[in-house]
Amino acid sequence: MSETTVLPAPPFRGAPGYLRIATEEAFVTPEVLKLYQQLLDDPSYDDPGFRSLWGFYMGSRSPRATAVIERLQDLGPRRIADMDATGIDVQIVSLTSPGVQVFDKDTANAMARHSNDVLADAVKRYPDRYVGLAAAAPQDPATAAKEIERGVNELGFRGFILNSHTHNEYTDDPKFWAIFEACEALGVPVYLHPNTPSKQLIQPFLEAGLDGAVYGFGVETGLHLLRLIVKGVFDRFPKLQVIVGHCGEALPFWMFRLDYMHGAGVRSQRYDFLKPLKRGKVSEYLKHNVIVTNSGMAWSPAVQFCRQVMGPERVMYAMDYPYQYVREEVLMGDNLPISLEEKREFFQGNAERVFGLKPR
Question: Which H or E element spans position 161?
Fold first, then answer.
């Protein structure tokens, strides 16, 4: 069914017995887009993933690209109307990928602060409809930690958005851990959001047109999360909670093999740097430190599988607005073969707990 097909809006504002809180919803400021265009115009800027993704969205006149760019920049009536049309009560809103993570350190810090102020203003205008996640610049971990603290303590944000790698580096490196330390201390989650594959990974994806959300995003983000687990981030920060979308970027499906092969690698001492984990198995971290959303995965079997292997308390609803704004997909959750109370937890209760929201 096309995006323009007129459908009756699903009941919302509690009518079905729960609120629908969509937990991976994106925005961007005109200032960030202007800087993205400057990067695209700079022939010396060497990031093939960024050029593939944002070269399309900023250069294409296709209906998809045009609609996404328009909707990303709207934090007012159009977004609210889109939420109403699809039965979404609340959006958890964050700066779209790659956020500020493609800029130099000073630009990234300035744009993170500015973007957070823009989002905070929107939350103030629509306090019943938006909840914000803080952007920050991993290029400068100490300043990033302070900006996350400002976002939470001064702006009322309820987490931090991390758009995977930063200049092809992953945050399992201890130099980035001030960010995780701040989030754990503040009691807010990190949303580990996809980026296009890093420069080391991307070429085979580009050759087949698979670098974006179709597959490359999932590979990139799943790799990043696994690196956090096996390199000991959660052993150092045991209370840290990380959210990943798209039904866990396929990692729940791989639990058994991840446990078996990681354990085999540790026991055989195949890699000098690969050490035993305090919880023993990779799956234990997926069950204790990771929450998944179904963003872009409006598919009952996948959602049910994640609920089964991770626990229903670790699976939340998301739409992936505006990249996957499809009205009928909202009804997938309404039609899950679970009880009304379980649907309430999927759509509302888990989000309220994970993000520390006041129950509505």
Answer: strand 160-162
